[in-house]
Amino acid sequence: MTIPINWYLLVAAGLFSIGLYGVLSRRNAIGILMGIELMLNAVNINLIAFWRYLDPVRMTGQVFAIFVFTVAAAEVAVGLALVIAIYRNRDTIVIEEIDLLKE
Amino acid sequence: MADLINLIENWIKNLLLGWGASAGLTGFILQALGSVLVVMVCFAIVIVLIWVERKLAGRLQDRFGPNRAGPYGIFQSFADMIKIFTKEYVTPAGAEKGLYNIAPVLAMASVLAIWAVFPFAVNVIGADIHVGVLYIVAVGAFGILAILMAGWSSNNKYALLGASRSVAMLISYEIPMVIALLVPVLLSHSMKLSVIVEAQEPWFIFVAPLAALIFSISSMAEIGKAPFDLLEAESELVAGYHTEYSGMKFGMFYVAEFLHQFTVGALITIFFLGGWTGPMAVRWPILGVIYFYGKSLFIYLVISWIRLSLPRIRIDEMLDLNWRFLIPVSFVNLVAVAIADRVMMEFTLARWIYVLVMFGMNMFILWAALAIAERNDQAVEREEFPPRPVAVPPGVDSK
Amino acid sequence: MVPIIIFGLSALITLGAALAVVTNKNILHSAFYLVLAFAGVASLYVLLEAPFIAVVQVLIYIGAIAILIVFAIMLTRRIGSDDLIQRNAQWIWAALGAAGLFLVLGWIVYSVNWPVVTQIVPEDTITILGQELLSTYVIPFEVASVLLLAALVGSIIIGRERE
Description:
The complex is a heterotrimer.
Chain A: H1 5-25, H2 29-54, H3 60-90
Chain B: H1 4-18, H2 23-60, H3 76-85, H4 97-112, H5 132-153, H6 157-188, H7 193-198, H8 204-207, H9 209-223, H10 248-272, H11 285-309, H12 315-346, H13 351-384
Helix pairs in contact in B: 1-2, 2-10, 2-11, 4-5, 4-10, 5-6, 6-9, 6-12, 9-10, 9-12, 10-11, 12-13
Chain C: H1 2-23, H2 27-47, H3 51-75, H4 91-111, H5 125-135, H6 138-158
Helix pairs in contact in C: 1-2, 2-3
């Protein structure tokens, strides 16, 4: 019996929810970035599952997934550079203490 | 006798089928046996290689190598192995147990996993995946993570420093390695290693010598052998990232290092020296295996030779070499090879003219790069050390 | 039978590691669990018969992004920050929200009739992928390269030491 597509989509949904919990509940800036990476991975699993089960002949799904990889890598690089710059200025990366713009 | 490998395989398959095993299980058992054989041969070779290296080091440095443990010291490796097996594991206080124990295993696993895609003979290959080249680079990245884990979990400032420095160097040198690796992929129109080996009509070292040079230099940096051996600069950082390891865990790092050197030799053989090709290698596959291991051993000895002759370079010189020389040259090389290959595809040239043109173009790029680098060096030197008159009479200002 | 066992193992490892990432107190342990999650996702890609994507996942995520994250963690540590509480005040609402989202997504997944086809997956995906990237999808390809250049230059400038 081949694996039904629902199982892959469920795993991706679970990974996305866990990533969302990570983004919303972590205090460390890098912890939030790790949650975002989990969400992007979940999206990629979805894309590849759809490619495999719905249209494996054309490569649209894989091309889309490659672009998601690219964007994720670029975003992590810039995000971590920002975190390091903030750490140099404020000596903290706890998100709750970086609230200069708040009233 | 001509097809020894197939003979053995068919015999085992018939034996298993005779015992009532299903076809799928037979295939699986055959593959498992094959992988166990490759791993055992790897370990056996490493034992021999350690002895060869120490003897070679001795002779090149005008002394005898080990010559006490057995005639010509051939049992020296076994003596070392027994010593390492029986040493006590000293785990530093405050080390993180999980990461500390997994790091050597991961370092060894990442080197062994590369052997899964090597073509040993005409149809003898572990897993002929379509993305073989990328797989090799990806598995190498696992080894880098193992170093970081080892340095971090030792709870030792110097181990962490050594690990960070070595990881910075390793990820920097991955870039020219991958770009130089793209040249054989370009020339053979495939990423499968078996196709790359079979497409080398003249070996790729004649068609793309600059790519071979860049790949060799970057690989020597990746395995941490001199002149890039900052990773284990014994005089600087105690022992780098494996300071706090003792006993078999250190043994695993040690063996992984030698095996990585041999694996790099095998990689250079596959991509640039024609892999298992040679006279009569297609008719008698066992000859292909012998050629493959022979060429890899030759490259291993060349790397050892270079290691034992050159001094270590500083980390800023090393990063300079990478970012300001190797990466631009490898990019230019890739673009030039791609354009030349495409242009020459339009005309139907004889093979030797093609090889000559590519060789000439590679040499031209290398000469141009070295000339530009030398002019840069001279400009920097002129800036920092302006020419002064040599003989100044006493009492006169040097201006 | 064997693919199902492998799928179960991979899914378990991925989801377990992801849970460890978002709940662990020590941020460096979280980073290494993230590596495990990435490896689990790569094995899922192999099961989905997309070997190129699996290898690219290992190469980019484990080989570059995970190392970058570990470096950033090591550069931004404060002494005595290892026992910091990692959950902020709204974590219970975040958990409820995430669980709710998972239930909604699961309901959607099971209520849609996916038009599954049973075509054979082409064996040499790389050739087709390369041709498509340079013909049909050449504009997103070029835009992605500009994006990477911008990210490269930007992160170098942002992360530089101010003299």
